[in-house]
Amino acid sequence: MCFGPPSPKMEKSRSSTRIPYRLDKADSADVPAWIEKLLSRAYGSSQRQKRIKVLINPFGGQGSALKLYNTHIAPILAAARCELDVEKTQYRGHGVEIAQKLDIDKYDVVACCSGDGIPHEVWNGLGKRQDAAKALEKIALAQLPCGSGNAMSLNLNGTDSPSLAALAVVKGHRTPEDLVSVTQGDRRMLSFLSQSVGIVAETDLATEHLRWMGSARFTWGFLVRFLRKTSYPADIAVKVEYATKEEIRNAYRAAAANPPRTPKKQPLQAADAGLPDLKYGTVNDPLPDSWTLVPHDQLGNFYAGKMAYMSPDANFFPAALPSDGCLDLIRVRADIDRRANIACMLAVADNKLFDLPQVDYQKVSAYRIIPKNQKDGYISIDGERVPFEPFQAEVHKGLGTVLSRKGHLFEAKGV
């Protein structure tokens, strides 16, 4: 079964179709060569017949994930002759447990039919293993969008359509992906998408009751809080890699213009190699000598992203790259005037946020943030709420593996 390349901007879905083709000389020695040539054109350098562990969150997408899988995803994976092992998650955190016990020699891919929550769980389950380094290199993670937040699929598959995403996974290329260690208290977790304090965190976590609105709840929550001009004071220290927008733009364009000719092979990991050591320690350690803690008493938004799209109309981090060893960090003051606030909101949908003068945009490899003057509030890690207390983040270049269409860029419009 062969498929053409997906065109997400023109199509909303794909389906598998069988086309009989009668050969004049079916027993000819040329037939296997013809079939191989056809498959080679269809798949390119992508792995065929992937062995996929499919995790379905039956509560995702307002309870429609299982139906979406059976109707739109399973037929495409079956037509591509993928080997499938399907399991439904039963409760919060089940994805962590499944990934911890996964036989990584049996599978090439873990595909999550869910929103962004199950990928977050799987990353952290793989990270808790004794052979974490090997598991994170061996297993490619993919998202088949079936939730209210499908950012991973938007960035890697170029779509939030379940069928188009299934096709993208079938054709997807193994791609190194940076992961981020977040330490808070005595805990260490892995983040693949974003960390936020302030307006974006509240927009996401304080609108849980509006999930029936789908991705529109983010737009609504963002607008309401922008107009209030609420501040979220904190002390912040960062390890900056690219300080100016000109440097960031040049780095992005250089990466876009020079794709790797062949996929980079990760070094073979030892069976007992866990997560990498923390270069800068944890949030409980003294601040590194080269870092300076700077007060941000009028902080409106602190948003660090490892991917570009956060929702279909929110390309917050257009300069993000899969494996550049950096987080893209946005900071916006709370005391800018309402006209500038509204300009920020409109600029996100128009892919113009990066260029606004009121938006501080840097690429960093690590940071520490200490909220202050608030008894409670919202901190979001990959869309999951964590305790309202100081935390530190550090990027691990190429620690994880994903499937992507391009292999070196996200699907969002860059800078």
Show the helix and strand layout.
Layout: H1 30-43, E1 51-56, H2 60-63, H3 65-79, E2 83-88, H4 94-101, E3 109-114, H5 117-127, H6 132-138, E4 140-145, H7 151-156, H8 162-171, E5 173-184, E6 187-191, E7 194-198, H9 199-205, H10 216-228, E8 234-242, H11 245-257, E9 294-296, E10 299-305, E11 309-311, E12 314-315, E13 327-333, H12 338-349, E14 360-371, E15 379-381, E16 384-386, E17 391-404
Parallel strand pairs: 1-2, 1-3, 3-4
Antiparallel strand pairs: 5-6, 5-17, 7-10, 7-15, 8-9, 8-14, 10-13, 11-12, 13-14, 14-17, 15-16
Helix pairs in contact: 3-8, 4-5, 9-10, 10-12
Short description:
This is Sphingoid long chain base kinase-like protein. The chain is of the alpha+beta class and 415 residues long.
Tell me what the structure shows.
This protein has 415 residues and is of the alpha+beta class. It has 2 domains: 34-171, Rossmann fold; 184-398, Tumour Suppressor Smad4 (Sandwich), CATH 2.60.200.40. The protein has 12 helices and 17 strands. Strands 5, 6, 7, 8, 9, 10, 13, 14, 15, 16 and 17 form an 11-stranded antiparallel sheet that branches. A 4-stranded parallel sheet has the order 2-1-3-4, sandwiched between helices. Strands 11-12 form a two-stranded antiparallel sheet. A hairpin with a 2-residue loop joins strand 5 and strand 6. Helix 3 (65-79) runs parallel beside helix 8, helix 9 (199-205) packs across helix 10 and helix 10 (216-228) runs antiparallel to helix 12 (338-349). It is globular. The two termini are 37 Å apart. Keywords: Kinase, Transferase. One of its GO terms (molecular function) is lipid kinase activity. Pfam families: DAGK_cat (PF00781). This is Sphingoid long chain base kinase-like protein. Residues 47-186 form the DAGKc domain.
